[in-house]
User: Which sequence fits this backbone?
């Protein structure tokens, strides 16, 4: 029998709760749903009013993985949606605004990806993001060195950076902005990526060309583009184990000497939230004018 539960007055049909989605650890779909219920408060804060892109992996990371931005077929009418502009014409996307819609989306088995702008101000970014992606044999350890450089460089321009793991191999840096056109943020981020490449002695590349990336950290500034999205804080990732895009402290970044130091799984997050709360919550209260903006 397929379980039906009620969340905030909405009836949800939850399927295949015993299905193993993360074969490395035996983590099941039921545990995925429990995880998202555990981190719902901070996750919802980061999802709210941001159109959701779905990276779905309903049979686990070894099965079919596919990306979708449009409202999925069968979406309940009580799930909020919004019209967003696209170059090919307007489209409708999902907004996850409450616990019921979060659990509905989690039941689809998805990574949560969101843009740096909100639905009511499309293409006006209120966050800046850098995605630090290491090319083997570089690891997150090298990303941490680059992150500290970027933190200080952003501070010189009056921006306060916050860090989270990507939930895969690298790090993400975020800063809060007064809303500004996404292309201006992209241009600014690109200029800092170039500075990092020039200043860090062969450790960094700002170019996406894969042949340039071995043993370097790719500072991906392109996720500031209006059409791009980034893994939302606290989302699970489609990896062999249930890894989380987890906020981290700057002392943790500075002290990282092994990738395991900044690898976090679903089972780690309740304790971290109990100890630190949401390390990214200052993003909701800060809004800094971008230099030249």
Assistant:
């Amino acid at each position: 029998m397929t379980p039906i539960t009620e969340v905030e007055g909405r009836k949800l049909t939850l399927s295949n709760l015993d299905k193993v989605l993360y074969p490395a650890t035996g983590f099941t779909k039921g545990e995925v749903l429990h995880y998202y219920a555990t981190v719902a408060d901070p996750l919802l804060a980061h999802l709210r009013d941001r159109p959701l892109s779905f990276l779905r992996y309903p049979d686990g990371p070894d099965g079919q993985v596919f990306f979708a931005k449009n409202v999925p077929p069968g979406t309940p009418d009580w799930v909020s949606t919004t019209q967003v502009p696209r170059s090919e014409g307007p489209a409708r996307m999902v907004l996850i605004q409450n616990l019921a819609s979060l659990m509905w989306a989690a039941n689809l088995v998805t990574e949560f990806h969101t843009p740096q702008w909100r639905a009511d101000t499309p293409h006006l970014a209120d966050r800046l993001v850098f995605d630090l992606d290491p090319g083997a044999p570089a690891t997150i350890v090298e990303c941490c060195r680059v992150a500290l450089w970027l933190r200080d460089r952003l501070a010189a321009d009056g921006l306060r950076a916050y860090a989270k793991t990507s939930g895969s191999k690298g790090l993400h840096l975020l800063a809060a902005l007064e809303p500004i056109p996404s292309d201006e943020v992209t241009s600014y981020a690109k200029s800092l990526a170039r500075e990092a490449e020039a200043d860090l002695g062969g450790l960094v590349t700002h170019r996406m060309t894969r042949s340039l990336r071995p043993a370097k950290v790719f500072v991906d500034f392109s996720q500031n583009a209006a059409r791009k999205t980034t893994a939302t804080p606290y989302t699970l990732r489609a990896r062999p184990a249930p890894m989380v895009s987890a906020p981290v402290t700057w002392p943790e970044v500075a002290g990282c000497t092994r990738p395991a130091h900044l690898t976090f799984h679903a089972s780690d997050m309740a304790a971290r939230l109990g100890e630190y709360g949401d390390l990214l919550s200052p993003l909701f209260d800060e809004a800094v004018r971008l230099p030249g903006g």
